[in-house]
Design a protein that fits this description.
GO molecular function: dioxygenase activity
Protein name: Glyoxalase/bleomycin resistance/extradiol dioxygenase family protein
Largest sheet: 4 strands, mixed
Shape: elongated
Structural class: alpha/beta
Strand content: 35-45%
Order of helices and strands: EHEHEEHEHEEEH
Keywords: Dioxygenase, Oxidoreductase
Helix content: 25-40%
Radius of gyration: 18 Å
InterPro entries: Glyas_Bleomycin-R_OHBP_Dase, PhnB-like
Number of helices: 5
Pfam families: 3-dmu-9_3-mt
Number of strands: 8
Strand order of the largest sheet: 1-4-3-2
């Protein structure tokens, strides 16, 4: 079993996918649009909805991030998509130079919470909120830090 981050958007999944692909230097990107399955006569989609991302996946540095749009009709059941602080993606155990590159690219249009720097617990630690409202935390020594504590 695996657990991965899955981000949902209100019509901005394509933009987010392109942004994350570049920022994280993705090696493999796949996407499927809602229109790929044809129209259901009982629940037809507008042209805009057909072009929205139903499911996508980017692979980077041995990791997976999935992204999709939530159709307006689905939001009646799931609730409205809003930017928030309930999701945090943590990049752990990466080389400090890789952290720096990804941090700078993800920061484009975003906000620094804590600048990427050396701390007592990590050679490379920092936090930001990207332009889509997703929070990112970088910790080059997360596993080493946690393993140093005894339960």
């Amino acid at each position: 079993m695996k657990a991965i981050a899955y981000l949902q958007f209100d019509g901005k999944a394509e933009e987010a996918l392109t942004f994350y692909e570049k920022a994280l230097q993705a090696t493999n990107v796949k996407k499927v649009r809602f229109g790929a399955f044809g129209q259901d006569p009982n629940a037809s989609l507008t042209e805009e909805e057909q072009n929205m991302i139903m499911e996508s996946r980017i692979e980077f540095s041995g990791n997976i991030l999935m992204i999709s749009d939530v159709l307006p009709s689905m939001q009646a059941a799931t609730g409205e998509i809003t930017k928030g602080n309930t999701v945090l993606i943590s990049i752990i155990d990466a080389d400090p130079e890789m952290n720096k590159q990804s941090f700078e690219k993800l920061l484009e249009g975003g906000t620094v919470i804590m600048p990427l720097s050396s701390t007592p617990w990590s050679a490379s630690f920092g936090m930001l909120v990207d332009k889509f409202g997703v929070m990112w935390k970088f910790n080059s020594e997360a596993s080493k830090f946690l393993d140093s504590f005894v339960n």
